Amino acid sequence: MFVSYAQNFEDVILHRALGSVSHGFYIDIGASHPDIDSVSRSFHENGWRGIHVEPVPAHAAALRHARPGDVVVEAVVTDEVGTLTFFDVGLGAGISTCSAEFAERHRAAGFSVSTYPVEQVSLFDIMNAHVSSDVHWMKIDVEGHEGAVIRSWRDSNVRPWIVLVESTEPNSMVPNYEEWEPEILRRGYRFVYFDGLNRFYLAEDHAELAVHFSCGPNLFDNFTVRPHHWLCPPPSPPQSDKQAFVEARNFIKKTKRKIRKLLGLRAYKIRHSKALPSSTLEVAGGHPGKMRVINETLQSALKSKVRVQKD
Questions:
Q1: 3-class DSSP state of 114
Q2: For the chain, how many structural domains are there in total?
Q3: Are residues 119 and 188 located together in one domain of the fold?
Q4: Domain identity same for 26 and 146
Q5: Is the pTM of this model over 0.85?
Q6: Which CA distances in Å does 75 have to 19, 56, 78, 152?
Q7: What is the pLDDT of residues 205-260, one digit of tens each?
């Protein structure tokens, strides 16, 4: 089963379209953390390799450690040269940006913002230096800096099969793709899917894959999500031994009452050893069929509970 680590199931859609490709290649611009909200992690686990571009030093270091065989470029992709001032927002919250305007919005919302100089590199140069085969997908998530990334593609012959670009302003549903989308379309791509956050574009020479973008992630994609995904409830706090004992004892009492009501038995008792759920049941005057039903009910119920000592 495919495990999704991406924030908005981008990896599920990509896997649906590219599931027949083994040992493919990706470019992840704005890769961020190697695990949290990562579009590339499941692909890497399934034998893919690729390029990560990430300017936050802590994330870049984590990517180098967690992604053997991948290239990590610690820089910002732009259509200029030299260095620029980078705004690191929220100590790696995934919304760091090259935009002073967006950084100030985050600061006003209560996020910490620090600045430092970061090297600039063009997408053209990255492709020339590190791409020697087909690129199956390229993701651009740069918090308002998408246009500069796409312009820096220039006249490279590298044409990823699928390009997905975050197309709303950071932390909002306000679209921001009008400025840069014409440049992608001009390169021979067509828009095929919007997931509420990203716009997906398909190269015209791989038009046969368009059928895979007709709907959002669903049960037929046969996937599960990583632990601590935003869809998952927060983990329960650890219980003390006493709390676990009380919970299990109350559960047993509740189960006994339910069985008494269900079967109309007047007298029965549960003997449990020091190692539940290996319980035995005696029914005063009970019918063998009722004995079996009660045993099965208790065994099923008690399997989910902690082992308790005899009270």
A1: strand
A2: 2
A3: yes
A4: yes
A5: no
A6: 30, 8, 9, 14
A7: 999 999 999 999 999 999 999 877 878 777 666 667 677 777 777 887 887 777 76
